[in-house]
């Protein structure tokens, strides 16, 4: 039963990612990305990483994916002939312009080897005690506040810097408009 | 340290869930969330009529009680129109995605001491995450409709939901800090006479007044930390925005953009969007009741020999316990919904700049201060 669920979600993940690559419509690929992200979150749950699964949904679906969709929508400039005339009766669509495959393939292969060699060598503290199912919330909370406090704080400062930078950039645009 | 040590014993009690309670929780919540639209629409119409000094629906059935069934019949008979220039697949899929994402939130809601879909330890965090699925569904509807008003409505809705997630998250975090748990059932147990740790008056241990035996309203979160009452007000405002309810109904502002992202929908698909709006109201009302207002615990305290709390809440595991639990939780949730409706028909719609001002310059700073206070309060509680 558990195996069946695992294969179903693995198929969802792989199928979603494949569809992202195949479809030319950027909005469709964004929504297929949603499917594959849900699949990955479900796989995390099956690996008893419940907090990670929810964080994945929250950050990637709620943050990154919505940002991607907004970015695509706002930066797209439809050609004038598509907003008037017979073309206007067709659905909205944004097609990818980029169809090269060599560089993406190289980058993907490089990332795969790097991650694979890293993950096969890494030593996770959770690997030792394999309980049937245990929530990872308490462990993660304690580890973040003790062993990994410095990376945690550095990530916080980085995010703060990004926030301040974003505010500065957007306020600059405002000031030039006012003058 | 005491809290950490007592948890395993409690977790054992909570996490051992028989599959049948999960199978029972699903149809109950499905019936509740779709049945609520019947009550909700009638209530909304009657309350709005009362506030505007009208009678409301009176023709169909006694006091217009059957009005909604007439409306449903009408919607069922209507043609399901897909505009020629719409993106057919996205357009047809979007209402289901929106409803599924709202309904998925009910999976972690405790209805009674024993009945909960999933007793996951990340319940509250999961709820926050599931709201973002709603956003994707709304974008799908707005983009798929290929209509300027729909797209504008979807954009407004998403901007609003994403912004108000911040004060919402901060207030939820206050409760999580006080309760030291992300599990909604565990948070519920703490706020009543069946708690596993002693409750003190206003949560302050130094006062030395043990209210564990009093129960009732004295063990609710809004009294365990009185500042959570302010947090509840912020939570309530933020949830109004999350549910796209007036005065935050800019995404469907009729006078500006027709009906926002549901402009092009008709027939049963429109009904499904409507259903998810009401299900969202119910979801956030439930969440507010569970986090702040004592969940399924009775508001009546034990006063000396008058054991009001004992009489009005049965112990977990018994039929009486489940009945009273469901009764109190539903009463609190419905009361919150009444306030939602009252607000809707009292306050005018906000402008976009007022909306953003309220979120970023009023609610978020107050939320951060409350978070700090809650942290200090937690230190007073142990």
TrEMBL record, chain A:
Transmembrane stretches, start-end: 29-47, 54-74, 100-119, 148-169
Signal peptide residue numbers: none
Protein family per UniProt: Belongs to the complex I subunit 6 family.
Record GO terms (molecular function): NADH dehydrogenase (ubiquinone) activity; quinone binding
The entry's keywords: Cell membrane, Membrane, NAD, Quinone, Transmembrane, Transmembrane helix
Name of the protein described by the UniProt record: NADH-quinone oxidoreductase subunit J
Catalyzed reactions: a quinone + NADH + 5 H(+)(in) = a quinol + NAD(+) + 4 H(+)(out)
EC number: 7.1.1.-
Native source organism of the sequence: Arsenicibacter rosenii
Matching InterPro entries: NADH_UbQ/plastoQ_OxRdtase_su6 (IPR001457), Nuo/plastoQ_OxRdtase_6_NuoJ (IPR042106)
A Pfam family assignment: Oxidored_q3
One GO CC term on file: plasma membrane
Cited function: NDH-1 shuttles electrons from NADH, via FMN and iron-sulfur (Fe-S) centers, to quinones in the respiratory chain. Couples the redox reaction to proton translocation (for every two electrons transferred, four hydrogen ions are translocated across the cytoplasmic membrane), and thus conserves the redox energy in a proton gradient.
Membrane topology according to the record: Multi-pass membrane protein
């Amino acid at each position: 039963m558990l195996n069946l669920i695992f294969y179903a979600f693995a198929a969802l993940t792989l199928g979603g990612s494949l569809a992202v690559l195949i479809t030319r419509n950027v909005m469709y690929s964004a929504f297929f990305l949603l499917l594959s992200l849900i699949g990955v979150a479900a796989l995390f749950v099956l690996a008893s990483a419940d907090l990670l699964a929810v964080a994945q949904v929250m950050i990637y679906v709620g943050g990154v994916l919505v940002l991607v969709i907004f970015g695509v929508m706002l930066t797209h400039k439809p050609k004038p002939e598509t907003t008037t005339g017979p073309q206007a009766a067709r659905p909205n669509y944004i097609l990818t312009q980029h169809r090269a495959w060599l560089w993406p393939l190289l980058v993907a292969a490089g990332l795969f080897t790097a991650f694979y060699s890293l993950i096969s060598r890494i030593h996770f503290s959770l690997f030792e005690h394999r309980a049937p199912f245990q929530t990872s919330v308490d462990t993660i909370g304690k580890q973040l506040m003790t062993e990994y406090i410095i990376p945690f704080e550095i990530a916080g400062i980085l995010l703060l810097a990004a926030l301040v930078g974003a505010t500065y950039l957007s306020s600059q645009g405002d000031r030039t408009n006012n003058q | 340290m005491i809290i950490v040590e007592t948890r395993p014993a409690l977790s054992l009690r909570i996490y051992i869930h028989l599959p049948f309670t999960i199978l029972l929780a699903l149809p109950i919540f499905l019936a509740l969330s779709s049945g609520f639209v019947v009550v909700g629409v009638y209530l909304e119409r009657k309350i709005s009529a009362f506030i505007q000094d009208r009678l409301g629906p009176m023709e169909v059935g006694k006091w217009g009680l059957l009005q909604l069934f007439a409306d449903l019949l009408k919607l069922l008979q209507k043609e399901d129109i897909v505009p020629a220039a719409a993106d057919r697949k996205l357009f047809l899929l979007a209402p289901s995605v929106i409803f599924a994402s709202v309904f998925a939130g009910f999976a972690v809601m405790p209805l009674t001491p024993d009945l909960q879909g999933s007793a996951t330890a990340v319940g509250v965090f999961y709820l926050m995450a599931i709201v973002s699925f709603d956003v994707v569904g709304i974008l799908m509807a707005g983009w798929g409709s290929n209509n300027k008003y729909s797209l504008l409505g979807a954009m407004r809705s998403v901007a609003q939901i994403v912004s108000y997630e911040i004060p919402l998250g901060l207030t939820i975090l206050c409760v999580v800090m006080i309760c030291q748990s992300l599990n909604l059932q565990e948070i519920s147990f703490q706020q009543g006479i069946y708690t596993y740790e002693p409750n003190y008056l206003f949560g302050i241990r130094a006062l030395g007044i043990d209210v564990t035996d009093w129960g009732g309203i004295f063990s609710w979160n809004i009294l365990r930390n009185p500042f959570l009452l302010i947090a509840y007000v912020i939570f309530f405002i933020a949830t109004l925005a999350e549910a796209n309810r007036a005065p935050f109904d800019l995404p469907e502002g009729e006078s500006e953009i027709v009906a926002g992202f549901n402009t092009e929908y008709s027939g049963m698909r429109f009904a499904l969007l409507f259903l998810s709006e009401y299900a969202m109201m119910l979801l956030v009302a439930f969440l507010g009741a569970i986090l702040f207002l004592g969940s399924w615990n009775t508001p009546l305290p034990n006063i000396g020999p008058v054991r009001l709390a004992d009489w009005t809440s049965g112990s977990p595991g018994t039929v009486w316990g489940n009945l009273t639990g469901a009764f109190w939780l539903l009463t609190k949730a419905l009361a919150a919904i009444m306030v939602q409706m009252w607000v809707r028909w009292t306050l005018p719609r906000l402008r976009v700049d007022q909306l953003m001002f309220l979120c970023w310059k009023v609610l978020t700073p107050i939320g951060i201060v409350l978070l700090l206070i809650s942290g200090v309060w937690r230190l007073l509680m142990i």
